[in-house]
Amino acid sequence: MESKKPTVNVQEEKQKGQEDQEPKVIEWEDYEQELARLCSLTSALEEAKRKKNNLEQKLHSLTQVEAESLSQSNELDEMNEKLESRKLVMGNMSMHSKIVEEKVRKEEERLSSEIRSLLVAGTALSEARKRMQDSHRSLTGEKGYVHLNKLQKLLRLRQQYMLSQVSLLYPVKFVIGRAPEQELESFTSSTKSGVPSGSKPVDQGSLTIAGLNLTVIPSTKMSFFTDKKEVQRSSTALGYVAHAVSLIASYLQVPLRYPLRLGGSRSYICDYAPAIDHSMSSSDSNSISSTSLKPVEFPLFLEGQDSTRAAYAVFLLNKDLEQLLNFIGVKSLGPRHVLANLKELLRTILSSEYIEM
User: Fold this and answer.
1) What are phi and psi of 41, to 5 degrees?
2) Which three-class secondary structure state does DSSP give residue 213?
């Protein structure tokens, strides 16, 4: 039934349309009434058109609003997506900032400890600098290094003067033409390094002390000497050398390794060699020998003495001369050149270079 209603309505509308197309005859008496009805219909039609236009405008505005709201919704969705991505980035940055903050905190702690150590080191450095300045002032002051250097020069001048007296008391000189086998050697070209370059060791027979020749005592008995006066002169010369060495050591304030017991031509030299005292039985394998340092004296003369002990005494006397030479920075000329070493010792100390050593 519902499907037939639209068909009936269409037919009715067609009949009305045909009736409308047919001219309508209006009576004169009904003209005014019909005219009024047409005017009212016209005004109603215009009002409907106006309302239609208003509705179209409102619909258009609503459509625009809906389109704008849709676009704004899309923009809002995009902004939400960007916001979510930025939130993720901010989360990562926050985590990274926490890691960096932890690293910065550890670095600050390390720098704080280094700063504290630097402050301690700076304090120590300032104290050391202050001590250095005090030391510098003390060195450059009236009792400083300059004054000490002056005193040292004065002391060496005094030592030179006293050793010049020893040189006058016991002069060591060359003797020319004393024996055919004797050689004359010059000491003027000698240096601190020891034996002069290009020269032979000095023969003992070419040097004398206070006019006496020193003969090296051979390891023989007294009966082999044909001239006892020569032996006595050698003993006297050794006494002179021993006295000169003792005076020089005292002036230089050098304790001799082998002390001297002066007695002129009957002088002795001491050697603190270890003496072994076997107080226990030799049958005991676990026995320990007691050792003690005891001075042993050796004669600087041959009369009535063992020649081996006398030769060893001359060797020890030369060792004392070598000790004095080493003290002033000069090497010994040899183990058998007693007078040559003594002359070199006096020559070096009496030279002008000794003051500036």
Assistant:
1) -65, -40
2) strand
Q: Which residues of 139-170 are buried (b: 16+ CB within 10 A; e: fewer)?
A: eeeeeeeeeeeeeeeeebeebbebbeebbeeb
Read off the pLDDT of residues 10-60 as tens digits, 9 standing for 90 and up: 566 555 655 555 666 667 777 778 888 888 888 889 889 899 988 888 888
Which residue type occupies 117?
S
Match 């304090």 to its residue by tokens.
123
Enumerate the β-bridge partners of residue 209. Answer: 172, 212
- Distance, in Å, from the CA atom of 233 to the CA atom of 210, rounded to the nearest integer, reads 11
Query: What does the DSSP 8-state code read for residue 201?
Result: P
Ordered DSSP codes for 60-111: HHHHHHHHHHHHHHHHHHHHHHHHHHHHHHHHHHHHHHHHHHHHHHHHHHHH
pLDDT of residue 34: 80
**CB-based contacts of 136, cutoff 8 Å, min separation 6:** none
Q: How far apart are CA 349 and CA 251, in angstroms?
A: 11
C-alpha closest to that of 321 among 172, 165, 200, 156: 172
Rg (CA), the chain: 67
Identity of the residue numbered 106:
K
Q: Please state the length of the chain.
A: 357
Average pLDDT over the chain, rounded to whole?
Answer: 77
Model pLDDT, residue 20: 57
Question: If you average pLDDT over residues 67-75, what whole number do you get?
Answer: 88
Instruction: Indicate the DSSP class of residue 149.
Output: H
The Cα 340–Cα 163 span in angstroms is 16
Reported as type and span, the H/E element at residue 174 is strand 172-174
| Pairwise CA distance, residues 332 & 313, whole Å | 17
